[in-house]
Design goal:
Length: 429
């Protein structure tokens, strides 16, 4: 007997998934067991790229999650509500759920996984992080015998696409964002991408899997790419770096009972493996013991890539439904109950790149050095790079420093009469 799917959403990801399921030749034969039974959308009048039999498509999404015939609900509508309520209702009705919705999982994971565990069903979310890259299952299974020290990723396709085109073509931020939207990479509200919130949701999910505890999303520091200018990209290039929006979860430097979980634009040395990840590609570098470093790389967004991840989850569940036992499979279920302790960003120890615009006064560099010295900030390089009108431009790269100390030094520097402004402040990997 076939396994019946109720798919919520027929946009970029839903359409890609239906296309994949309607073309099963040379794919895993288990896919032939899957029937696209119901599909829920917002508007019945919209032109669609896929054809479905009469009566399959509906705007009544609740009827899908409540339909006793549906075995697996695939949630690809996105957003928080009604996605959360529909997922919970499906789980309570004993249906397995596949979702690509990192925003809902990062916020309501506790409620969703608890409900799933109580109902004895699974929530699979491979598409929620890294698009088509298998990263959730590897962290849950293949890599889970390691002690993980750090997960560092480029996990937002939209911003990586924007930064790459700004770097390679000198393109303008807004124009490239429009292209990313047209290509189906961006969220319905692209501020989630641009402001680092989408990457924040994703690193919260990865941290939870890698470090074995739940994450309060409000503890995750997230900074986006709006402040990254063409000027910074050009200076970074001269200094031997590329600027990437990195999502980082690692054991805290001085207190290994805490985690540091954060998203921010970062100067990445050109020789680092993440420096060459361009366009919509994502990569996640996992460091652990005894494995060392593993980098998972691939397309981070887009219809086909994301459909690959969604459909692989469907396949897992089809296999599970066919071999179902009374006890849940612990490799598929969520095993976390407790929350991780997250260190505040002020405790982060990192290098900084900072660009100052200064007035033409003598001894400015000396004054900067004194302020930094007052807070134990030592400098790796100081370069006076040129002029912007009347103002001299000075670029500073520090050695490792505690972010709180560095911010105090900057507060003192801002008070100097020689300082006009500090247009850029970026962390260096
Ligand atoms: N796009 C990508 O590359 C990736 C997306 N994701 C995630 O996948 C999910 C879906 O994204 P994507 O396909 O891009 O989104 P789209 O905006 O392209 O599609 C959303 C679909 O859901 C339907 N929908 C939305 N809200 C409702 C509602 N309230 N009631 C009924 N139907 C609704 C829409 O219906 P209608 O068509 O009638 O408007 C549409 O078919 C999101 O969680 C996203 O974060 C994850 C990885 C990559
Ligand atoms: N908007 C997201 C889509 C995939 O998760 C991105 O750009 O990475
Ligand atoms: Na993935």
């Amino acid at each position: 007997m076939g396994v019946k799917l109720g798919i919520l959403g027929l946009g970029t990801v839903g359409t890609g998934t239906v296309q994949l399921l309607q073309d099963t030749t040379d794919r895993n034969p288990l896919l032939q067991e899957v029937e696209i039974y119901r599909v829920g959308v917002r508007s019945l009048d919209k032109p669609r790229e896929v054809q479905l039999p009469e009566g399959v498509v509906t705007t009544d999404l609740e009827s899908i999650v409540n339909d006793p015939e549906v075995d697996i609900v695939v949630e690809v509508i996105g957003g928080l509500e009604p996605a959360r309520s529909l997922i919970l209702q499906a789980l309570k009705n004993g249906k397995h759920v596949v979702t690509a919705n990192k925003a809902a999982i990062a916020r309501f994971g506790d409620e969703i996984f608890t409900t799933a565990n109580e109902a004895g069903v699974y929530v699979l979310l491979e598409a929620a992080v890294g698009g088509g890259i298998p990263v959730i299952q590897p962290l849950k299974q293949s890599l889970s015998v390691n002690r993980i020290h750090a997960v560092t990723g480029i996990v937002n396709g939209t911003t990586n696409y924007i930064l790459t085109r700004m770097q390679q073509e000198g393109s303008n931020f807004e124009d490239v964002l429009v292209d990313a939207q047209r290509l189906g990479y961006a969220e319905a509200d692209p501020t989630a991408d641009v402001d680092g919130l989408d990457a924040g949701d994703k690193i919260a999910i990865l941290a939870s899997l890698a470090f074995g505890g739940r994450i309060h999303l409000e503890d995750v520091y997230a900074e986006g790419i709006r402040q990254v200018s063409k000027t910074d990209i050009a200076y970074a290039e001269k200094l031997g770096f590329v600027i990437k929006l990195l999502a980082i979860a690692k054991l805290h430097a001085s207190d290994r009972s805490k985690l540091s979980v954060r998203v921010h634009p970062t100067l990445v040395p050109k020789a680092h493996p993440l420096a060459s990840i361009n366009g919509v590609y994502n990569a996640i570098l996992v460091e652990g013991e005894p494995i060392g470093q593993v980098m998972l790389f691939g397309p981070g967004a887009g219809a086909g890539a994301t459909a690959s991840a969604v459909t692989s989850d469907i396949l897992h569940l089809v296999a599970t439904l066919k071999t179902s036992t009374a006890n849940p499979n612990p490799l598929l279920a969520c095993r976390h109950q407790d929350y991780c302790e997250i260190a505040p960003i002020s405790e982060l120890v990192t290098r900084f790149y900072t660009r100052f615009l200064t007035r033409d006064q003598s001894g400015v560099i000396g004054k900067l050095g004194t302020c930094f010295g007052n807070y134990g900030v030592s400098l790796e390089s100081v370069v006076q790079t040129g002029f912007q009108g009347e103002l001299a431009e000075i670029v500073v790269v520090t050695h490792d420093v505690k972010e709180g100390d560095f911010r105090q030094a900057l507060a003192e520097i801002r008070e100097l009469s020689a300082i006009d402004s500090i247009p850029s402040l970026l962390r260096v990997l």
